[in-house]
């Protein structure tokens, strides 16, 4: 005859084995999941590797240079395009007065054929930050002069349509004040009539200057200049 | 039998009953002589039971210990079985900004076991149809051979792998392999070198760092800047085209650290297509080639003359007559009929004057200083293709005079750039390197000349560009205006006649220019050499360095300086003029 205790022990053993098997299956399941995750990680790593190689390949300076020449009017910065911070005149007291002309008045010469564009590559080491204190007269500020109308190669419009030359577009009404920040420049961008094809900073600059034959710095390193203007106020 | 409440078997195993009910009167009583023996047996049984209990207890304790308390310490066996680390790949090579120059991609290579194939001819036909660059007869021959392992094609693209897999030919398998990719193509060909089909380095960095690239997964960071490399390559290509030259080489070196930011040798090759490589394109002119540098050596000659104290800056020499020594006659390209001082000799690149300066300090001083400038032994560089100089032996009096203007001692462009970097940077020499130096790393430095001599040489090198042989390249065109912004390049032109047979070929030249900028506090040295240029219309038929190499350096500097963060200054700024004035 099976005693009460026997029954209790049997129950315990059944429950224990049940828990054991359950745990064991769970572990197997998790292991499968884990290895599939690992495989996935492996695959993702490989794709990342492929994409990085692809990225490096597409960033080949020769290719970038060709694209920059084809699709934008931006050219390598020339020494003549840089202006000492001291050479930029302060904002006049009366805001209604004429636009101050920047110091170096030499218009940007037509880009010689021997000087094609450099690559505008990711440039972690390039240090064109005009960040020195405004008091220093030697500090250089990058001022991208709008290229001459002649040099500004028209932006190519797709599908063989006639390209929208900067001349064809209406000159943008420039505000009385010089555009002195990226924000203001963007605002003037919005105000500009729609240009067919790609709108680039340079092409807008070109259309902006089309009306006033003289080349002017349209984009000045924002911080230093506004600091200077702030000091003048 | 027992009725104890938790006794599974019904027997009183643990002897609980006995403890609960002290035995006053045994239930069974034996009243015979066997009693003693029975008692003895019982006590023996007790001892054995105790021993077993002890052993089982120990096992229990150990179990609890391993399963409950030492969970973390035990190796997670299930995890280690599946979470294998990625298969060891060859480390990447990047430029100083982290742009990929070489990387490895996993690819599949198809191989076959012909014994498992049902119809070899059909299989070969299908394979060739899928992989058109295979040759049907070759594949068939391979498959009909005795081998049980035949490569069909290595490094398939993922699409090809899929297509071959889709054919479903029994006996065709894939093996995961690694394929080296050079995203920048031939831009860094000589520098990085290349790897063979089994991923072993065969040239350049790939060869010299083969072990390092295999063992450490971290990318190897070079001192090269891809952007400068591109500018350099583009401009030298341009010069080679313009002047119908056979080759060229160029270097940009960081004066303060000795890091090479650019190293180009043309013609070059595509590391992805090593089959098209020939001896000419394989040759690294920047490091392996040794050349007579011509007038570029006058930088060193003048430095030696001033440093040794045998010549004063304002001392004049008679340069009106060609100098005869032995069977040689030393003459100038543009003869003058007056005496020139050191600055004039340097500016106009007078061979006669330089030789006369060398005469004053003599052979021993010259050899000693050339040794200091690292011109007498092979430089240390991290690639295997490094050429040793051709040092004249014995060092004759003729050698003394010819070395003064860069003939008779052949050195590599690396040596030239390194020594000029030392001359312009206060006289401190640092070895050239292709690896990026950590900021604050210890750089081996040796002083070769005094800061005073270095300052004078800087002014002389600037003079070459403003008023001397380099003026055509740097002084004309849009740069004419007095308030022009300028990167203050200074340097020296060098036009050497190439050796042909026992003498020199008058028409076969090698034009080079070694310059540094900004001259007020030089940070970068640029060297450009063009091999066998021919004069063109634009250069009025000239193929000398002032028309060939110097304009290339000018274009390079004008594009590179903005990237390097060098600020242009107004050329005729009184401060600059004063700093560069020779007094």
Question: Could you characterize what this model shows?
Answer:
Chain A is mainly alpha-helical and 233 residues long. Chain A has two domains: 6-59; 77-110 and 132-232, no CATH class. Chain A is built from five helices and three strands. Chain A has helices spanning 4-58, 61-71, 182-191, 201-211, 222-232, and strands at residues 82-84, 140-145, 217-220. A three-stranded antiparallel β-sheet of chain A has the order 1-2-3. The radius of gyration of chain A is 33 Å and the shape is elongated. Chain B is an alpha+beta fold. Chain B has two domains: 93-222, Alpha-Beta Complex (Penicillin-binding protein 2a (Domain 2)); 229-269 and 283-580, 3-Layer(aba) Sandwich (Beta-lactamase), CATH 3.40.710. Chain B has helices spanning 16-20, 34-69, 77-82, 120-130, 136-144, 158-167, 189-192, 204-208, 210-215, 226-242, 279-282, 297-307, 342-348, 351-372, 397-404, 413-424, 451-467, 471-474, 549-564, 574-580; strands at 93-94, 100-112, 150-156, 172-181, 220-221, 247-254, 260-266, 291-292, 316-318, 323-325, 328-330, 339-341, 410-411, 428-429, 446-447, 485-486, 490-500, 503-517, 524-531, 569-570. In chain B, strands 1, 2, 3, 4 and 5 form a five-stranded mixed β-sheet that branches. In chain B, strand 18 and strand 19 form a beta hairpin. The longest helix of chain B is centred in the first third of the chain and has 36 residues, at 34-69. Classes of the chains: A mainly alpha (233), B alpha+beta (583). Chains A and B meet through helix 1 and helix 2 of A and helix 3, strand 2, helix 10, strand 16 and helix 19 of B. Chain B: One of its GO terms (cellular component) is plasma membrane. Chain B: Residues 89-214 form the Penicillin-binding protein dimerisation domain.
List keywords for this structure.
A: mainly alpha, 3-stranded antiparallel β-sheet, 5 helices, disordered C terminus, B: 583 residues, alpha+beta, Beta-lactamase, 5-stranded mixed β-sheet, 5-stranded antiparallel β-sheet, elongated
């Amino acid at each position: 005859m099976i005693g009460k205790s026997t029954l209790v022990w049997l129950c315990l053993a059944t429950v224990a084995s049940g828990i054991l098997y359950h745990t064991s299956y769970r572990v197997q399941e998790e292991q499968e999941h884990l290895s599939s995750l690992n495989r996935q990680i492996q695959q993702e790593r490989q794709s990342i590797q492929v994409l990085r190689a692809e990225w490096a390949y597409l960033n080949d300076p020769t290719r970038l240079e060709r694209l920059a020449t084809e699709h934008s009017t931006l050219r390598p910065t020339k020494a003549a395009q840089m202006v000492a911070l001291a050479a930029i005149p302060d904002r006049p007291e009366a805001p209604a007065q004429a636009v101050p002309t920047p110091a170096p008045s030499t218009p940007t010469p037509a880009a010689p054929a021997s000087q094609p564009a450099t690559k505008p590559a990711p440039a972690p080491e390039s240090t064109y930050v005009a960040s020195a204190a405004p008091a220093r007269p030697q500090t250089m500020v990058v001022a991208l002069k709008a290229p001459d109308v002649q040099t500004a190669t028209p932006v190519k419009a797709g599908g063989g349509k006639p390209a929208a030359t900067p001349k064809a577009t209406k000159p943008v009404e420039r505000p009385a004040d010089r555009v002195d920040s990226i924000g203001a420049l963007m605002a003037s961008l919005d105000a500009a009539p729609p240009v067919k094809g790609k709108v680039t900073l340079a092409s807008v600059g070109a259309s902006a200057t089309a009306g006033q034959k003289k080349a002017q710095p349209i984009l000045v390193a924002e911080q230093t200049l506004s600091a200077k203007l702030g000091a003048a106020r | 039998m027992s009725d104890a409440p938790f006794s599974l078997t019904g027997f009183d195993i643990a002897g609980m009953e006995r403890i609960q009910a002290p035995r006053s009167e045994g239930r069974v009583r034996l009243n015979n002589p066997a009693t003693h023996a029975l008692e003895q047996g019982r006590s023996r049984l007790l001892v054995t039971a105790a021993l077993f209990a002890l052993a089982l207890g120990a096992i229990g304790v150990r179990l609890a210990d391993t399963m409950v308390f030492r969970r973390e310490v035990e190796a997670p066996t299930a995890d280690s079985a599946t979470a294998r680390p990625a298969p060891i790949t060859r480390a990447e090579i990047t430029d100083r900004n982290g742009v990929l120059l070489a990387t490895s991609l996993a690819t599949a290579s198809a191989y076959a076991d012909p014994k498992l194939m049902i119809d070899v001819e059909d299989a070969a036909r299908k394979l060739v149809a899928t992989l058109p660059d295979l040759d049907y007869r070759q594949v068939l021959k391979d498959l009909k051979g005795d081998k049980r392992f035949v490569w069909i094609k290595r490094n398939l693209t993922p699409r090809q792998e899929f297509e071959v897999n889709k054919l479903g030919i029994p006996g065709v398998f894939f093996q995961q392999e690694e394929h080296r990719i050079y995203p920048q193509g031939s831009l860094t060909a000589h520098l990085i070198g290349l790897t063979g089909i089994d991923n072993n380095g065969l040239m350049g960095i790939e060869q010299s760092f083969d072990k390092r690239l295999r063992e450490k997964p971290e990318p190897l960071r070079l001192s090269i800047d891809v952007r400068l490399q591109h500018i350099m390559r583009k401009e030298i290509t341009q010069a080679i085209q313009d002047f119908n030259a056979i080759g060229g080489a160029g270097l940009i070196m960081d004066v303060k650290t000795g890091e090479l930011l650019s190293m180009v040798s043309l013609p070059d090759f595509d590391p992805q297509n090593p089959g098209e490589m020939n001896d000419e394109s394989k040759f690294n002119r920047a490091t392996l080639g040794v050349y007579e540098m011509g007038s570029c050596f006058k930088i060193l000659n003048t430095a030696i003359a001033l440093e040794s104290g045998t010549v004063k800056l304002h001392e004049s020499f008679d340069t009106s007559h060609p100098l005869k020594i032995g069977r040689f006659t030393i003459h100038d390209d543009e003869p003058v009929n007056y005496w020139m001082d050191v600055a004039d000799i340097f500016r106009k690149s007078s061979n006669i004057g330089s030789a006369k300066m060398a005469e004053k300090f003599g052979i021993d001083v010259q050899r000693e200083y050339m040794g200091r400038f690292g011109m007498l032994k092979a430089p240390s560089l991290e690639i295997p293709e490094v050429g040793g100089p051709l040092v004249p032996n014995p060092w004759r009096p003729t050698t003394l005079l010819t070395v003064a203007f860069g003939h008779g001692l052949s050195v590599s462009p690396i040596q030239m750039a390194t020594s000029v970097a030392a001359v312009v940077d206060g006289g401190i020499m640092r070895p050239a390197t292709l690896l990026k130096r950590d900021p604050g790393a210890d750089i081996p430095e040796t002083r070769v000349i005094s800061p005073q001599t270095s300052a004078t040489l800087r002014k002389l090198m600037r003079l070459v560009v403003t008023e001397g042989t380099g003026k055509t390249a740097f002084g004309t065109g849009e740069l004419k205006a007095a308030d022009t912004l300028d990167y203050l390049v200074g340097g020296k032109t060098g036009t050497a006649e190439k050796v042909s047979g026992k003498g020199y070929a008058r028409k076969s030249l090698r034009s080079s220019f070694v310059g540094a900028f900004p001259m007020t506090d030089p940070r970068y040295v640029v060297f450009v050499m063009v091999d066998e240029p021919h004069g063109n219309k634009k250069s009025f038929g000239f193929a000398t360095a002032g028309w060939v190499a110097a304009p290339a350096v000018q274009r390079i500097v004008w594009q590179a300086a903005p990237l390097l963060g060098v600020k242009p200054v107004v050329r005729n700024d009184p401060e600059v003029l004063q700093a560069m004035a020779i007094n």
